[in-house]
Structures are given as C-alpha cells and as structure tokens.
Amino acid sequence: MIILITGDKGFIGSHLKTKLVSDGHTVLGYDLLDNYNIKDLNEKHIKAVDKIVHLAAFADVRESIKNPNKWYKNNVDYSSNIFKIAAKCKTPIIYASSSCVKEWWKSPYGTSKKVMEDMANAFGKSIGLRFSNVYGDGARDTMLIPKMLKGKLEYSTNHKRDFVHVDDVVEVIRMFLTMPNFNDLDKLIYNVGTGKSISIANLVKRYGFDVPIREGHSSEMNDNTADIADLAKLGWTAKQDLDKYLKRKLNGNTNYKEHVQGLLS
Question: Which of 14, 57, 89, 183 has the most C-beta neighbours closer than 10 Å?
C-alpha cells in the first residue's frame, strides 16, 4: 500500500512512518521540515497514493491564543484543500483531531480542530482520531513527561490527564489503515487514550518533584479522560503503561526523588 503521511517528521508521524515502512508499505512524507507545505498538496499527489494519514497541524493550546489566525489557516483552510481533493479522488483519510474538541470554545486550537472535524465529514467519510495526551520518545520538550524526565518541571496543576503512549496511537492508525472500507463503520470520530486519567499534581509528587501547584490556564480542560468504548468495540485497547515507561527511562531507578534531585543539582 502507498500511504501519504502529512507531518511525517513530527512526533507521531515519525513513529508511524517507521512502523509502516517495517510493515512493507511505501510511505510518502509531506512535512514543513522538508519545505513541503500542506497548502501545496494537489490532485497529482493524492492520486498517487492509496490512503492518507493527515497529521500535519499547528498544535499547542496556549500558543494558539497568541496567533489564532495562523492556527485556523493551517489547521482548517489548508486541511480543507486536502479533504476536498481526497473526496474527489476517493482516497480514504485518517486525520488527527484532539481531545480539546470536547471543549473547543476554550482555545483557537480546539476551535480549529472542531471545524476540521465538521469539514472533513462534509466532504466524505474520513476517520478522525481525538488524541488525548500523547507521550513517548521524541515528544516536544514543552510537554509534561519530557519536562519531568529532564528535571525541568517548574510547577504542577490539579488537571486530570489521560496519557497515551505514541506506540498505542500508531497501532490505532494502523488498525484503520488496514480496514478495507470506512463505510462499514458506525462512527467516524474516535477518542484515543487509555480511558483512565491521573492527577498531574499526584503524578509529579510521586516522582519526587517538590513544585508549587498552580491554577490551570483558562484555555485548558480540567479533565480529558478519553471514552474509548467505540475503539474497544473494534478490538483496540491501550497496551503501554505510563509508570513502566517512566521507570524504563529512569533506568530502573525506583528512588525517584534521588534521581530528580540529581537532575536538578
């Protein structure tokens, strides 16, 4: 199968590309890091592939507040072009949405993803995946788990977050890529997470961080626990465990406070 991945140099895209290539697929990447802007995708590109995984987007909830037009143009206007052409070519699309859609009005990023979902369904049947908090090797340094591992955490909040490993996210995408026909599915949008949440304040305290608890930003959800019942019906559940990941990254050291203090010293 020939698969086009937009954002193939990104966190999720790079993991997905590696896995799909190992599966024997031909993967074509389209990423800003290679000076390929998704606004330039045309019918010639899309006719050349069997399926599309559209991951390219401007993320970061707080940054979107500073420049909402930039987020809307990229995540909505440029994506609209992809969905239109794919519908014309009858090329199936799996695209990245976000758990932020549940409270989309809180940020331009959430709004852009909500509009993107509505737009995708208007053109034809595409599968939208609402990712919760994705972690794993290669995640942005500004995200919580990398900050913890690098000893750069300055504060915590009382937010509850559903942390899902990038390998589990890749497995969800692979599952939909191997489906012969999206028309057989009852749902077009799926929540992707573990179905369980953890308090950020409790998590960082357990790992030895003595940092102040601050009130969360008004643009952020208090709890983004994913309802994964629809994915469970398709036979998918998350297999990776956050604590096992953290222990592995800490080289098996169970004295988290000592490890963290070593990083901070």
Answer: 57
CA atoms lying within 13 Å on the CB side of residue 59: 20
Q: Which domain holds residue 183?
A: 2-264
Instruction: Name the residue with tokens 């937009």.
Output: 6
Residue in the structure block whose two tokens are 């208090």: 222
Q: What residues form DSSP beta bridges with 163? A: 133
Say whether pTM exceeds 0.85.
yes
177-181: long-range pairs with CB below 8 Å, 24+: 177/1, 177/3, 177/20, 177/51, 177/53, 177/94
The C-alpha atoms of residue 55 and residue 185 are separated, in whole angstroms, by 21
Contact between 101 and 130 (Cβ < 8 Å): yes
Q: How confident is the model over 86-140, as pLDDT tens digits?
A: 999 999 999 999 999 999 999 999 999 999 999 998 887 899 999 999 999 999 9
Q: Per the structure, how many domains does the chain have?
A: 1
The angle formed by the CA atoms of residues 251, 253 and 259, to the nearest 5 degrees, is 100
CATH number at residue 90: 3.40.50.720
- DSSP annotation string for 71-115: HHIIIIIIHHHHHHHHHHHT--EEEEEEGGGGGGGG-HHHHHHHH
